[in-house]
Amino acid sequence: MFDLVIDTSYKYLYIALVKDGKVYSERMQEGNNNHSEMLTDCLKNLLKDSKVSIGEVKRILVCKGPGSYTGLRVAGTVAKVLAHAERIPLWTFSSLDLLLSSYLDQDGFYVAYMDARRGGAFAKTVRIIKGNFETVQDDIYIPFSDLQNLYPDAIYINAVNPQYDIPKLIEKGLIEEVKDVHSFVPNYLRSGV
Predict the structure, then answer these.
(1) 120 with 73: CB under 8 angstroms?
(2) In the chain, pLDDT over 90 holds for what percent of residues?
């Protein structure tokens, strides 16, 4: 059985199939504000090329944000419809935890961030010691001018060329089950959204 991972929170559309703690198949495609046009075709092609049926998916893991308002709604809607129609449990994860995922076994003090436009960033600060993950500052919206001063000694990880480790994200328990699929709402963070 597979986990189906969907993320359209930023400029990259990322989907993956994970089985037995390993990425079975994945796709990352840079979008141009067109995730809504690409996502369903990409999902169909991922399943077809991997020779996996939707009936073999045991969980859908969708990014809850923070990130692009439209991108979060696109992934959230597709994931909710699939989860409801196919009776597959829906789980979520933070886009900033996804950015941190390839660092989860490396001790350090990290700030993961992505451009939130309008002069701001979405950011999360964590400390990792001996594989233990401690959130110092949970997902926030912050002006870019304040970002580098947030924690000057931290290692900053941005969303420009992301490297993801989905199995590590799952292993570290950085996913959360959605009890009621219909009540799932993305984490938009910015006020007025």
Answers:
(1) no
(2) 80
Q: Is the pLDDT of residue 192 over 80?
A: no
- Confirm whether pTM is higher than 0.70: yes
* Domain 2-95+164-183 = CATH 3.30.420.40: yes
> Which residues are CB-contacts of 132 (< 8 A; sequence separation ≥ 6)?
none
Q: What is the mean pLDDT of residues 52-63?
A: 98
The Cα–Cα gap between 120 and 29 comes to 24
Tell me the residue type at 84. H
Q: Show Cβ contacts of residue 58 under 8 Å, excluding neighbours closer than 6 positions.
A: 1, 2, 3, 88, 89
Architecture (CATH level 2) of domain 97-158:
2-Layer Sandwich (3.30)
Q: Give residue limits of the domains in the chain.
A: 2-95+164-183, 97-158
